[in-house]
Amino acid sequence: MEAKNNKRTIWAWAMFDWANQSYNMVITTTIFPAYYVAITANKETGDMVTFFGRQYVNTVLSNYILGLSYLIIVITLPILTSIADYRGNKKLYMQLFTWLGSLSCAGLFFFTMDTFEFSMICFGLASIGYCGGFVFYNSYLPQIASLDQQDAVSAKGFIYGFAGCITVQIICFVFVLAPGIFGITDEAFPARLSFLIVAFWWIGFSLIPFYLLPEGTPNAGSHDYNIFTGGFKELAKVWKKLKELPLMKRFLPAFFFYSVGVQTVMLVAAGFGAKELLLPEENLISIILLIQFVAILGAWLTAKFSEKYGNVKVLIVIVAFWTLICGLFYFITKAYQFYAAAVLVGIVMGGVQTLSRSTFSKYIPQDIPDTASYFSFYDVTEKLAIVVGLFTFGFVEDVTHEMRDSALVLDVFLAVGLLILISLFLAQDRMKAVKELKSALATIKI
User: What are the pLDDT digits (tens) for 380-397?
Assistant: First the structure.
């Protein structure tokens, strides 16, 4: 097994974030949401669209498709990651999902109302590709970094991701704002070209980690299981071990509840600005670029604060901040209010993601050969939270026709996650006190 904390390996790992966050920026956050709202709204049907013969509110449909894609991940990934641990081939799965995502992004280049159903399927498949690849990427963290370095390495990954998505967004921004320079006369073409740029960026830079990252280590031992039986047996073993980790048992429910709010807000924020506040595409792109710059600083500061104050304590502060921000979305009616809230989101966006990942990584046993199965539970928890968040957000909007009401419901999930985090902090303190007491008693000579 390759030694941990190898600079070249860590750089290659971070480059995967640099590659795939282009999808997260352009497709889920900026250009695609604005393009989708613009192309699906017209004077005759308003904001209603027809998808395979059934009518939906445009943003409700996109949230449902995203939610369905995450649900597919929730169902399939525990099996795939357990098989990857069993066979030691997690890099192969990371490659397959990345190719699926990038090719689906390329398919979005053909997105018009004439290809609406095909394009929305590509939209869902791109999400599956992104989420699936990220699971196996995350599982490398304890394999390439020692326990004391995992916060910093996790932060480095997110910083590379933010920097990469800023770079590709600026490239796309040039085509969106100044199409005439390139002789482009079709108003819809710059957005569709952006989807193609993301596809090439994503798969192109992913070739670096595909080449340099180590292979997984099989956990099969001498057992003579076939691939499916071995995968299920490995999954059952990991589930049993997770139930024996008291801090993990508290962290995962907290992570689920606050992720419902955090992840959903990040996915629907651009749609909120485009639909509720009628913000032009260039304004949305500009403010979200600013968010990414702020998020880089936020991820770096979070790693520093966690070194001094501990992961859980810093997470409590960040999630409390998120709870406040999400509540404020209910009252946003002006563009400047949205911009202010967006900057606040940027401050804590990188922090909550990088610290959640490294906190979970620290709770995993550090002496196991591969961790894809463990990280499948982390990613499934996050993706299930997104499913719940997106379907809740879409359902409330469908009933009330107000996205603000949906944001208010999300705030309840954040508050519950905050309370469980506080209970985790108290439990962690009690365990530390008991350990120190036993250590002190052991030194007393009778």
Answer: 788 889 889 988 988 898
